[in-house]
Predict the 3D structure of the following.
Amino acid sequence: MKKKLGLMAVLTLLLALCLFLSGCTELKLGTVEDLYCLPSLPDEYQDLEASINALIEDGAEYAAPSSGSNIQPVQLVDLDGDGQEEALAFMRKPTEDKPLKIYIFSAKSGSYQQSAVIEGVGSAIFSIVYSDLDGDGCTELAVGWKTASEMQVLSIYTLRNGQPEEVLCTTYVKYALTDLNGDGRNELVTFHADTEGMGIAEMYTWQDGTMALKSSSKISVTMVELSNLGRVVTGAVQDGTPALFVVGVVDSTTEITDILVARDGELRNIVLSNITGASTEVARFLSLYPTDINGDKITEVPVPVLLAGSDESQDYYCIEWQSYDTTGVSTRVESTYHNVEDGWYLVVPESWMGQVLVRRESGAEESTVTFSYRDGSELREFLKISAITGDSREIKAVRGGRFILSRRAKTIYSAELLEANDSWPSGMTEDELRATFSLITAEWLAGDN
């Protein structure tokens, strides 16, 4: 669904457009007052602004969602599928029994008028997600209410005859709305602790006008491990089957990954061991999460493998990226060296495996990773990759035998092929190095839903 700008952003754009079209932009100079003249807003937005101001005068205050991708205090969304956007204002009235309010304004006869209100209890509106869960062309609202505990309360609302009706209310730590069974509609999967404190995933589907619990599955991670550095990633396994990759992080050092698919209408954890009852996918945590590392539309899981370093001051890892079939059997897709500190990674050729060592050195304006290979008892340096900052980075990046690999706003990444590269059968050319070098894209995370 196309994201819509909040009211203030819309008004700002309208103001800018009107300034260009109005007499305020004429070249001749008038009085100071003329230079600051404001254009008139369309009547429908004036009515909306007046309605919101009336609520504020009556004791309401803005209470925008604090997390997720929709965090504007006023949001424009077509809820009923008629092509006309409704306006939703997120507010709080502290003196009322249900202080949290989501006011819905519908455009009628050229102006916005309040048509409905959703009320909730708690300390804040945590998040909101819009999704057509029943396939009727109208949008349901998934609202997360922040409570005093670590958990949130999730309410799903459908609009019937323009009025909101709650079709589900449940507690959760994280949740995902995604099409797991391939029917073209999103299912809801929530994560929370069961009565024994163990992690559990529950899948809800639309049935007979409401959201009903369809299936559940045990997960290996606790809610503490999931909520701190953990993450729920929407992706796919090898045959394209949709999957949820649930990552929990233990003591900031170890990651545990569960993989959930919907098979025959049931939620299955395909990496859960029948013997131990826990996930088989346990690895060192290096701030890397499941992703499509090679662009094949299949999600891979990072598995760090310790490399021998040329010094004993730091551990170095090669990342083996694993994809999975629907039974949980993994296949290594490719290996990389990820330099998370400097923001780049290198796809490691198969011939380097078991032969290459790395060493990283960091200075004030330059960090360099040196690659070496074993030649009998001797280590021979064959490649250096540097991240260079500072005012003289353009000069430094091409000094000597260096050549530029990539750029960011304030960083240049350059490389140097050393003498040992030419004599090593697994050495690289400049073009081959550029083809295997990539920047780590900083994933923009708006926060949990």
Notes: The helical segments are 7-21, 32-35, 43-57, 223-227, 393-396, 419-423, 430-436. The CA atoms of residues 215 and 305 lie 36 Å apart. The two ends are 16 Å apart (CA to CA).
